[in-house]
Amino acid sequence: MKQxxxxxxxxxxxxxxxxxxxxxxxNRKVYxxxxxxxxxxxxVIPIIENSYKDRIHLHLILSIPENFHHDDYIYLIKETWNxxxxxxxxxxxxxxxxxxxxxxxxxxxxxxxxxxWENLHWD
Length: 123
Known about the structure:
Elements: E1 4-5, E2 8-9, H1 12-31, H2 33-38, E3 44-50, E4 56-62, H3 70-82, H4 99-105, E5 114-115
Antiparallel strand pairs: 1-2, 3-4, 3-5
């Protein structure tokens, strides 16, 4: 994530707000009216983490919608993320989730690392 954006310096609160905006836009693009009318949403488990240089960034598990080709979905994720206030061009999308990834994103090295509970959604 950019550490400064149009909303000022990035912190855990602005990170969560920026991610919520990203997910709202992505859900609208994927599910169109079903997102608004029926609250249909992508499943997501977001983790906010601080690197050793105190750089805030996100790791997440994000579901893949049935009606999207893999490459098109990755493009949509990157385009949507880069259009947020704190979106940064380094977006790495891995198509397969396994227990190693889950353990990696939940390692919580610092006291600031945590699940972004406000933006977690899993049906």
